[in-house]
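quick one: 2-acetamido-2-deoxy-beta-D-glucopyranose bound model?
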Amino acid sequence: MHFSGLILASLATGAVAAPTSNVFNDVYNFDSNLEEFYSRVSAHIGRYANGPSSTPDMSKVSLPSSSLPAPTGTLKYVAVGRGTQNYTCADSTADAVPTLIGAVANLYDASCVAANFPDLLDLITDIVLNYSLPSANVQTSMPPANLDLLGHHYFETATEPAFNLNTTPDKQLGIALTAKRNSTAAPSGSVPGQFNVGYGAVPWLYLTSVTGTTDGYTAVYRVKTAGGAAPSTCAGQPAAFQVQYSGQYFIYA
Ligand SMILES: *[C@@H]1O[C@H](CO)[C@@H](O)[C@H](O)[C@H]1NC(C)=O
Ligand SMILES: *[C@@H]1O[C@H](CO)[C@@H](O)[C@H](O)[C@H]1NC(C)=O
Ligand SMILES: *[C@@H]1O[C@H](CO)[C@@H](O)[C@H](O)[C@H]1NC(C)=O
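yep, here:
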């Protein structure tokens, strides 16, 4: 049974009836039997991905290729990020350009999916952009593959993206404080925004750790981005606004 086929089939399935399960967040319309089927597939993937005895073989995972410098360290985690990129505008004219002032995202542990179902990882990353924004303060796992919360992404300072993997008293996986070292435009064809409407996918990034990092984290790559880019000018924009995005974070130590 090929999970990728199932998910693709699900995307091709036409609207039939209003769904009831919150597993799919009412994003897709399935009849109740199909909905039950995909809910179970989702749960099976989640159990495989998050089972207490499963340790993903990260040596099987490779960073998506790009013009970013090649990674040097050991891959520790692959996370799907879901949140917002935050911008400000000096005024609302076409003469001003939006300034990125930060980002806030929940990070979901996709390490096992990356190691075992790599063909699902990109699909999941695009699919979750259509879901409503998860609350920062909940431990709820992320459908459609029941990915566990791994941590939180935010800006520690204006130039220091943070990846805080300390989520509960029992899950203290440390923190990577980083600075941008390199970036490259997202490939053409990347999802431009939620529901395929938006200003494009934010660039892929290479971030390296700075003082304050714990647990030996050395670098974080942001790749396979969907959405998040600002309009090219501030025309008609408010003083501050958020743009929803998703993406993959590869965290090295
Ligand atoms: C980014 O990385 C590429 C490939 O390693 C390199 O050629 C380029 O000079 C780097 N750019 C910056 C700004 O460091
Ligand atoms: C970004 O926007 C989010 C969502 O509105 C908000 O919670 C967060 O404080 C903002 N962060 C920054 C650095 O602007
Ligand atoms: C997101 O929503 C848009 C608009 O309904 C749809 O065309 C697109 O296929 C959806 N993307 C995914 C990955 O489900």
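Residues 5-45 form one domain.
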